[in-house]
Amino acid sequence: MSRERNAWLFPVSVLVALLLGLLPLPAWMQPFRPYWLALVIAYWLIEEPERIGLGIAFAAGLAADLAFGSLLGEQALRLTVLAFIVQRFRSQLRFFPIPQQALAIGGLLLNDRVVSAAVHLTIGEPRVPWAYWWAPLLGMLLWAPLFLLLDGLRLGRQK
C-alpha cells in the first residue's frame, strides 16, 4: 500500500533535482552547485533497489544532459558509474549511520567529479578550476537533510 501511495515520489524528486540543477546562480557560486540529481538517485538506489537501477540512472542522466545542454551522454555516464558503485556497496551503505553515509556519498561525488573532469579533458576542454572540487563537500553536507526529507516522505511518517 505504501509503495502505491508514494509512487509519485520518485519522479517528482528527480524533477525537483533537475530543476535545482537549472536554478540560476551567480557566476562565483556555479562551481559550488551540488549535484542534486546524483544525491537523489543515490538515495533511491539505497532505499528502493528493486525499482531503481542502472537503466533509470542512465535515463535520468540523459534527461539531465538534455535539460542542462551539456555533452550528450556525459551525465548519463556519470550517473551510471555512481549507480553501479552504489549498487555494489548498497548492503554496506544501507546500514551505515547517516554521518558515515554522508562521508561515503562525499566520496562518490568526488569520484563523479573525477569522471566528469576526465570526460572534459578527453574532449580537449581546458582544466577545471580549483573551486570545482568543493561541490562534493557541499553535497556531502546536504546528504543528511535530503536523506531525512525523502525518507520521511517515502515512509509517510505519522505524528
From TrEMBL:
It is a multi-pass membrane protein. Keywords: Cell inner membrane, Cell membrane, Cell shape, Membrane, Transmembrane, Transmembrane helix. The chain crosses the membrane at residues 130-150. Signal peptide: none annotated. Pfam families: MreD (PF04093). GO terms for biological process: regulation of cell shape. The keyword Transmembrane applies. Its main location: membrane. It is found in: Cell inner membrane; Cell membrane. InterPro entries: Cell_shape_determining_MreD (IPR007227), MreD_proteobac (IPR026034). One of its GO terms (cellular component) is plasma membrane. Belongs to the MreD family. Involved in formation of the rod shape of the cell. May also contribute to regulation of formation of penicillin-binding proteins. This is Rod shape-determining protein MreD. The gene is mreD.
